[in-house]
Amino acid sequence: MDWMIILPIIVYIFILVGIGAYSYKFTGTREGFHLGGRKIGSWVTAISYAFSGMSAFVLIGFVGMVYTLGPSSFYTLIGYNIGFAFSYIVIAKRLRNYSEILDAYTYTDYFVKRVRGNPHMIRAISAISILVFMSVYVGSQLAAGGMTIETVFDINPTTSVIIAGIVVTAYCLFGGFAGVSITDYFQGIIVVIGTAILGVFMINYAGGWSAVVEEVRNQDPALVTGGLGASGSALLGLIFGYLTLGVAIIGRPHDTIRFFAISSSSEVRKSFAITLTALTITYWGAFLVGYAGRVIYPNIDNPEYIFPFALVDLTHPIFGGFMIAVFLGLLMSTSDSQLLSSGSTFGEDVYRKYINMHASDRQILIVTRLFIAIVGILSTVVAVTSSESIFWITVYASAGLAATFAPVLVFSLYWDKLTNAGAVAGMLTGFMTVVLWDNFMPEFSFIMTEAVPAVVLSSVVIYVVSKLTEQPELQTVRNELQQVKKVWKK
Amino acid sequence: MLGWTFTAWLVVVIIPAMITGFSIIYYMMGEKKQGEEDEA
């Protein structure tokens, strides 16, 4: 154990706790706790949106993919960037405005108020989907955190994951949304710069760009091409398969909720540009880490360990410690957003609506925090027991969330005839398709993500069922849809 | 070119840069439109 590495990590955790304590003052009200009072600016929205989505995926999962696939791994990220562009252009502004018109604090609350009618089924499906997929998702972050802690502190993997689980859950219990957003911002900026520095450093360490390319070519000539050496329909299949992963990032509750809180819908475009710029720089840095990793660690058992290994073995201990702190921060930014959206779902949508209808705001906050702790424990169990790679766990959890929520979200922002029955049927179809697809047709998961058939089927079901039923407040919905197109400022 | 095929450069550098470039142009067009609306 090297104290030169550990010291920066401890200092960093103190800074995070300080930010959590500072933002505690925002959390006295429900709107404050859940949405930071809808006063979050474009920079904070952009960076926190980007990194609450990308998390461990970039530095652990994606680095491992680069090691295995070379440049072809980038198809995934192109798919993701298209998914982000869709989210910003099609969803963000309208959702920001509509959530305020409907006075909705949580994702589920938005759907219930938007479609009118009986809310029970929507609440039930949302709560189940969020509980199931979010526990898996947070589990993947904790597993990645465990890998890092294991490498640095040289303690066993299970203890490492449990430590990660305790730190993340405890942090989220304090800060609420403002805490989450501010720390995401702060960490996101460090991640962009730190990853780029590490990537360039590793390429130099491995002998420079030309030497790295030459060595990779010697290992496998397909890894210096953009298609794994494939051509024709095999290449098209590969491209299609990875591009479709972008579908799985649309409409996920933990990052889409950022759009509720942005201070003005005029900030949306700026936020879009910042998100994509920051992410692209980070992807490039992570790519260099994985590519140089192939030369530096040619026989590594699990390439998802390259990032922590490189920091411990190759860099100056203070830089290594700082970067590990950055990485743990990145994990926290995803995990805490996800824990928060689970907690909000239970506190607002289940406890307030079914268990104690006269609950005070304070009681609800207590229940929300209690539920955050429960999901934190569940996720730790998932992380300790799972044997899948971080990359594929993340993809699966994302697909489940996107399939449940994305189609109905888009219909709700553009189509006045969407009905309660249509929304319920669509969400159920999306959720069930992901679960069944993965269990009964596992071979197809490698052709394209489960999210694609799930989103298509769900959209068809939403349209058909809504056509067969009737929206009881059609005129009101039409007026609201006119309103959401405008620019709103808080 | 620098040891890589054109498709590798296309996938890793050119397309991601173009998508990011698009987001920046989209933002700047919005700023202009916003300015015109404010003046009106």
TrEMBL record, chain A:
What stretches pass through the bilayer? 6-24, 44-67, 73-91, 121-140, 160-182, 189-207, 227-251, 272-293, 305-331, 364-384, 390-414, 421-440, 446-465
Topology in the membrane? Multi-pass membrane protein
The answer to keyword Repressor applying to this record is no
Q: Is Nucleotidyltransferase a UniProt keyword of this protein? A: no
Q: Which reaction does it catalyse?
A: L-proline(in) + Na(+)(in) = L-proline(out) + Na(+)(out)
Family as reported in the entry's similarity comment? Belongs to the sodium:solute symporter (SSF) (TC 2.A.21) family.
Describe the function of this protein.
Answer: Catalyzes the sodium-dependent uptake of extracellular L-proline.
Q: What is this protein called?
A: Sodium/proline symporter
Q: Specify the species.
A: Alkalibacillus salilacus
TrEMBL record, chain B:
Top-rank lineage group of the source organism:
Bacteria
User: For this UniProt entry, which segments traverse the membrane?
Assistant: 6-27
Q: Which UniProt keywords apply?
A: Membrane, Transmembrane, Transmembrane helix
What protein am I looking at? General stress protein CsbA
What taxonomic classification does the UniProt entry list for its organism? Bacteria, Bacillati, Bacillota, Bacilli, Bacillales
